[in-house]
Amino acid sequence: MLARELIDDYPLIRADDPALAAARMIGEQRLPGLMVVDDGGRPLAVIGGSQVLRFMLPGYVVEDPTLARVMDEKLADHLSRELEGKTVADLLPDKPAALPQLGPDDTVMEIASVMARERVPLVAIVNDEQLVGVVTASKVFSTICPAL
Amino acid sequence: MLARELIDDYPLIRADDPALAAARMIGEQRLPGLMVVDDGGRPLAVIGGSQVLRFMLPGYVVEDPTLARVMDEKLADHLSRELEGKTVADLLPDKPAALPQLGPDDTVMEIASVMARERVPLVAIVNDEQLVGVVTASKVFSTICPAL
Description:
Helix content of chain A is 47%, strand content 20%. Chain A contains nine helices and six strands, in the order H-E-H-E-E-H-H-H-H-H-E-H-E-E-H. In chain A, strands 1-2-3 form a three-stranded mixed beta sheet. A three-stranded mixed beta sheet of chain A has the order 4-5-6. The two termini of chain A are 18 Å apart. Chains A and B meet through helix 2, helix 3, helix 4, helix 5 and helix 6 of A and helix 2, helix 3, helix 4, helix 5 and helix 6 of B.
Protein backbone atom coordinates (compact mmCIF):
# COMPACT_ATOMS: atom_id res chain seq x y z
CA MET A 1 0.00 0.00 0.00
CA LEU A 2 1.29 3.41 -0.97
CA ALA A 3 0.94 6.68 0.92
CA ARG A 4 -1.37 8.13 -1.75
CA GLU A 5 -3.90 5.37 -0.99
CA LEU A 6 -3.82 5.99 2.75
CA ILE A 7 -4.55 9.69 2.83
CA ASP A 8 -7.37 10.60 5.18
CA ASP A 9 -9.56 13.63 5.10
CA TYR A 10 -7.74 15.60 7.79
CA PRO A 11 -8.25 19.22 8.82
CA LEU A 12 -5.30 21.55 8.28
CA ILE A 13 -4.42 24.50 10.45
CA ARG A 14 -2.50 27.54 9.29
CA ALA A 15 0.44 28.90 11.21
CA ASP A 16 -1.33 32.28 11.44
CA ASP A 17 -4.61 30.80 12.73
CA PRO A 18 -5.44 31.60 16.37
CA ALA A 19 -3.85 29.14 18.81
CA LEU A 20 -7.16 28.88 20.65
CA ALA A 21 -8.92 27.72 17.46
CA ALA A 22 -6.30 25.01 17.01
CA ALA A 23 -6.71 23.77 20.58
CA ARG A 24 -10.51 23.75 20.17
CA MET A 25 -10.21 21.86 16.91
CA ILE A 26 -8.25 19.03 18.58
CA GLY A 27 -10.93 18.71 21.26
CA GLU A 28 -14.00 18.98 19.04
CA GLN A 29 -12.78 16.74 16.24
CA ARG A 30 -10.84 14.38 18.54
CA LEU A 31 -7.73 14.83 16.46
CA PRO A 32 -4.47 13.06 17.38
CA GLY A 33 -2.54 16.26 16.55
CA LEU A 34 -2.17 19.26 14.27
CA MET A 35 -1.02 19.45 10.66
CA VAL A 36 0.29 23.01 10.37
CA VAL A 37 0.68 24.64 6.94
CA ASP A 38 1.80 28.06 5.78
CA ASP A 39 -0.47 30.37 3.78
CA GLY A 40 0.76 28.80 0.56
CA GLY A 41 -0.39 25.37 1.74
CA ARG A 42 3.15 24.15 2.34
CA PRO A 43 3.48 21.84 5.34
CA LEU A 44 5.38 23.35 8.27
CA ALA A 45 4.99 21.03 11.23
CA VAL A 46 3.21 18.06 12.71
CA ILE A 47 2.47 18.34 16.43
CA GLY A 48 0.92 15.56 18.49
CA GLY A 49 -1.78 16.50 21.00
CA SER A 50 0.46 15.99 24.04
CA GLN A 51 3.10 18.24 22.46
CA VAL A 52 0.52 20.98 21.95
CA LEU A 53 -0.27 20.71 25.67
CA ARG A 54 3.44 21.02 26.40
CA PHE A 55 3.65 24.27 24.44
CA MET A 56 0.49 25.63 26.04
CA LEU A 57 1.46 25.03 29.67
CA PRO A 58 4.12 26.99 31.54
CA GLY A 59 7.33 24.92 31.76
CA TYR A 60 7.34 24.68 35.54
CA VAL A 61 3.87 23.11 35.49
CA VAL A 62 4.99 20.49 32.98
CA GLU A 63 7.96 19.61 35.16
CA ASP A 64 5.91 19.39 38.33
CA PRO A 65 2.25 18.35 38.02
CA THR A 66 1.62 19.01 41.72
CA LEU A 67 2.04 22.71 40.91
CA ALA A 68 -0.84 22.31 38.47
CA ARG A 69 -3.10 21.29 41.35
CA VAL A 70 -2.05 24.09 43.65
CA MET A 71 -2.64 26.76 41.05
CA ASP A 72 -5.51 25.12 39.20
CA GLU A 73 -7.79 28.16 38.96
CA LYS A 74 -5.01 30.61 38.28
CA LEU A 75 -3.57 28.26 35.69
CA ALA A 76 -6.83 28.04 33.77
CA ASP A 77 -7.00 31.84 33.64
CA HIS A 78 -3.36 31.99 32.70
CA LEU A 79 -3.89 29.53 29.90
CA SER A 80 -6.79 31.38 28.34
CA ARG A 81 -4.86 34.65 28.62
CA GLU A 82 -1.75 33.02 27.20
CA LEU A 83 -3.63 31.66 24.21
CA GLU A 84 -5.64 34.81 23.52
CA GLY A 85 -4.05 36.71 20.70
CA LYS A 86 -1.47 34.03 20.01
CA THR A 87 -1.20 32.16 16.75
CA VAL A 88 -0.41 28.54 16.02
CA ALA A 89 3.08 29.71 15.02
CA ASP A 90 3.59 30.86 18.63
CA LEU A 91 2.87 27.29 19.80
CA LEU A 92 5.56 25.78 17.60
CA PRO A 93 8.92 25.07 19.21
CA ASP A 94 11.67 27.56 18.36
CA LYS A 95 13.62 24.83 16.65
CA PRO A 96 10.91 22.66 15.15
CA ALA A 97 11.83 19.02 14.68
CA ALA A 98 12.21 17.92 11.08
CA LEU A 99 8.74 17.67 9.54
CA PRO A 100 7.73 14.00 9.40
CA GLN A 101 7.04 13.76 5.69
CA LEU A 102 7.03 11.22 2.91
CA GLY A 103 6.07 11.15 -0.76
CA PRO A 104 2.86 9.82 -2.34
CA ASP A 105 4.70 6.70 -3.58
CA ASP A 106 6.26 5.80 -0.26
CA THR A 107 4.98 2.66 1.42
CA VAL A 108 2.91 2.08 4.53
CA MET A 109 5.99 0.50 6.14
CA GLU A 110 7.99 3.68 5.60
CA ILE A 111 5.16 5.66 7.15
CA ALA A 112 5.03 3.30 10.13
CA SER A 113 8.78 3.61 10.52
CA VAL A 114 8.73 7.43 10.51
CA MET A 115 5.85 7.52 13.01
CA ALA A 116 7.67 5.10 15.32
CA ARG A 117 10.95 7.00 15.13
CA GLU A 118 9.62 10.55 15.40
CA ARG A 119 6.88 9.48 17.81
CA VAL A 120 4.16 11.34 15.92
CA PRO A 121 0.55 10.31 15.22
CA LEU A 122 0.55 11.90 11.72
CA VAL A 123 2.82 12.26 8.73
CA ALA A 124 2.58 14.79 5.92
CA ILE A 125 2.50 13.40 2.38
CA VAL A 126 4.30 15.95 0.27
CA ASN A 127 4.92 16.38 -3.45
CA ASP A 128 6.90 19.32 -4.88
CA GLU A 129 6.78 21.01 -1.47
CA GLN A 130 2.98 20.97 -1.56
CA LEU A 131 0.95 18.99 0.93
CA VAL A 132 -0.86 16.15 -0.82
CA GLY A 133 -2.49 14.87 2.35
CA VAL A 134 -2.08 13.42 5.81
CA VAL A 135 -1.78 9.81 6.95
CA THR A 136 -2.79 9.01 10.54
CA ALA A 137 -1.45 6.26 12.80
CA SER A 138 -4.91 4.68 12.99
CA LYS A 139 -4.92 4.39 9.19
CA VAL A 140 -1.52 2.70 9.35
CA PHE A 141 -2.82 0.21 11.92
CA SER A 142 -5.94 -0.65 9.95
CA THR A 143 -3.72 -1.17 6.86
CA ILE A 144 -1.05 -3.37 8.43
CA CYS A 145 -3.48 -5.21 10.70
CA PRO A 146 -6.79 -5.27 8.81
CA ALA A 147 -9.93 -6.52 10.56
CA LEU A 148 -10.50 -10.26 10.12
CA MET B 1 -12.99 20.15 36.46
CA LEU B 2 -11.93 16.92 38.17
CA ALA B 3 -10.65 13.73 36.58
CA ARG B 4 -13.79 11.82 37.55
CA GLU B 5 -15.87 14.17 35.38
CA LEU B 6 -13.61 13.75 32.37
CA ILE B 7 -13.58 9.98 32.07
CA ASP B 8 -14.41 8.76 28.58
CA ASP B 9 -15.77 5.42 27.56
CA TYR B 10 -12.48 3.88 26.46
CA PRO B 11 -11.76 0.27 25.51
CA LEU B 12 -9.29 -1.58 27.73
CA ILE B 13 -6.91 -4.24 26.56
CA ARG B 14 -5.51 -7.00 28.76
CA ALA B 15 -1.82 -7.80 28.87
CA ASP B 16 -2.61 -11.39 27.86
CA ASP B 17 -4.79 -10.39 24.89
CA PRO B 18 -3.30 -11.12 21.43
CA ALA B 19 -1.05 -8.33 20.18
CA LEU B 20 -2.75 -8.50 16.79
CA ALA B 21 -6.13 -7.80 18.39
CA ALA B 22 -4.68 -4.73 20.09
CA ALA B 23 -3.22 -3.40 16.83
CA ARG B 24 -6.56 -3.99 15.06
CA MET B 25 -8.41 -2.23 17.83
CA ILE B 26 -6.34 0.93 17.42
CA GLY B 27 -7.07 0.95 13.68
CA GLU B 28 -10.76 0.12 13.81
CA GLN B 29 -11.68 2.38 16.70
CA ARG B 30 -9.20 5.10 15.78
CA LEU B 31 -7.75 5.07 19.26
CA PRO B 32 -4.85 7.36 20.24
CA GLY B 33 -3.25 4.47 22.16
CA LEU B 34 -3.76 1.47 24.40
CA MET B 35 -4.80 1.29 28.04
CA VAL B 36 -3.33 -2.03 29.19
CA VAL B 37 -4.67 -3.74 32.32
CA ASP B 38 -3.88 -7.03 34.09
CA ASP B 39 -6.48 -9.74 34.56
CA GLY B 40 -7.53 -8.16 37.84
CA GLY B 41 -8.35 -4.88 36.06
CA ARG B 42 -5.31 -3.12 37.50
CA PRO B 43 -3.74 -0.64 35.07
CA LEU B 44 -0.31 -1.68 33.79
CA ALA B 45 0.66 0.69 31.00
CA VAL B 46 -0.43 3.42 28.63
CA ILE B 47 1.10 3.18 25.16
CA GLY B 48 0.55 5.80 22.45
CA GLY B 49 -0.10 4.56 18.91
CA SER B 50 3.34 5.56 17.62
CA GLN B 51 4.96 3.68 20.51
CA VAL B 52 2.99 0.56 19.64
CA LEU B 53 4.40 0.87 16.10
CA ARG B 54 7.87 1.17 17.56
CA PHE B 55 7.46 -2.07 19.48
CA MET B 56 5.98 -3.85 16.45
CA LEU B 57 8.70 -2.92 13.95
CA PRO B 58 12.21 -4.36 13.97
CA GLY B 59 14.63 -1.83 15.49
CA TYR B 60 16.72 -1.39 12.34
CA VAL B 61 13.60 -0.37 10.38
CA VAL B 62 12.72 2.26 12.97
CA GLU B 63 16.23 3.68 12.78
CA ASP B 64 16.30 3.73 8.99
CA PRO B 65 12.98 4.20 7.15
CA THR B 66 14.64 3.59 3.76
CA LEU B 67 15.09 -0.03 4.86
CA ALA B 68 11.32 -0.20 5.25
CA ARG B 69 10.93 0.62 1.55
CA VAL B 70 13.50 -1.90 0.35
CA MET B 71 11.98 -4.73 2.32
CA ASP B 72 8.35 -3.66 2.17
CA GLU B 73 6.82 -7.03 1.21
CA LYS B 74 9.07 -9.03 3.47
CA LEU B 75 8.46 -6.62 6.30
CA ALA B 76 4.69 -6.99 6.06
CA ASP B 77 5.07 -10.79 6.25
CA HIS B 78 7.54 -10.43 9.06
CA LEU B 79 5.18 -8.19 10.99
CA SER B 80 2.22 -10.55 10.75
CA ARG B 81 4.45 -13.47 11.75
CA GLU B 82 5.96 -11.45 14.59
CA LEU B 83 2.55 -10.54 15.97
CA GLU B 84 1.01 -14.00 15.57
CA GLY B 85 1.05 -15.78 18.89
CA LYS B 86 2.32 -12.73 20.77
CA THR B 87 0.44 -11.00 23.53
CA VAL B 88 0.12 -7.34 24.40
CA ALA B 89 2.59 -7.98 27.23
CA ASP B 90 5.19 -8.86 24.57
CA LEU B 91 4.69 -5.41 23.03
CA LEU B 92 5.43 -3.61 26.27
CA PRO B 93 8.94 -2.30 26.79
CA ASP B 94 11.10 -4.36 29.15
CA LYS B 95 11.30 -1.45 31.52
CA PRO B 96 7.92 0.22 31.12
CA ALA B 97 7.84 3.92 31.88
CA ALA B 98 5.96 4.89 35.01
CA LEU B 99 2.24 4.53 34.34
CA PRO B 100 0.75 7.97 33.72
CA GLN B 101 -1.91 7.91 36.39
CA LEU B 102 -3.87 10.28 38.55
CA GLY B 103 -6.71 10.04 41.04
CA PRO B 104 -10.41 10.78 40.49
CA ASP B 105 -10.08 14.07 42.40
CA ASP B 106 -7.10 15.38 40.49
CA THR B 107 -7.70 18.35 38.22
CA VAL B 108 -7.74 18.77 34.46
CA MET B 109 -4.57 20.85 34.77
CA GLU B 110 -2.75 18.01 36.50
CA ILE B 111 -3.89 15.67 33.73
CA ALA B 112 -2.69 18.13 31.07
CA SER B 113 0.62 18.44 32.86
CA VAL B 114 1.17 14.66 33.03
CA MET B 115 0.24 14.24 29.36
CA ALA B 116 2.63 17.00 28.35
CA ARG B 117 5.50 15.65 30.42
CA GLU B 118 5.11 11.96 29.61
CA ARG B 119 4.04 12.70 26.05
CA VAL B 120 1.07 10.36 26.18
CA PRO B 121 -2.43 10.76 24.70
CA LEU B 122 -4.12 9.03 27.67
CA VAL B 123 -3.89 8.89 31.43
CA ALA B 124 -5.25 6.23 33.75
CA ILE B 125 -7.50 7.40 36.57
CA VAL B 126 -6.82 5.07 39.45
CA ASN B 127 -8.32 4.57 42.89
CA ASP B 128 -7.02 1.93 45.32
CA GLU B 129 -4.98 0.39 42.50
CA GLN B 130 -8.13 -0.19 40.46
CA LEU B 131 -8.71 1.59 37.17
CA VAL B 132 -11.60 4.01 37.48
CA GLY B 133 -11.36 5.16 33.86
CA VAL B 134 -9.32 6.83 31.16
CA VAL B 135 -9.00 10.50 30.21
CA THR B 136 -7.95 11.31 26.64
CA ALA B 137 -6.03 14.33 25.38
CA SER B 138 -8.99 15.36 23.21
CA LYS B 139 -11.17 15.46 26.33
CA VAL B 140 -8.57 17.67 28.02
CA PHE B 141 -8.58 20.05 25.05
CA SER B 142 -12.35 20.30 24.91
CA THR B 143 -12.35 21.02 28.65
CA ILE B 144 -9.60 23.64 28.73
CA CYS B 145 -10.64 25.23 25.44
CA PRO B 146 -14.40 24.67 25.14
CA ALA B 147 -16.17 25.49 21.88
CA LEU B 148 -17.48 29.05 21.75
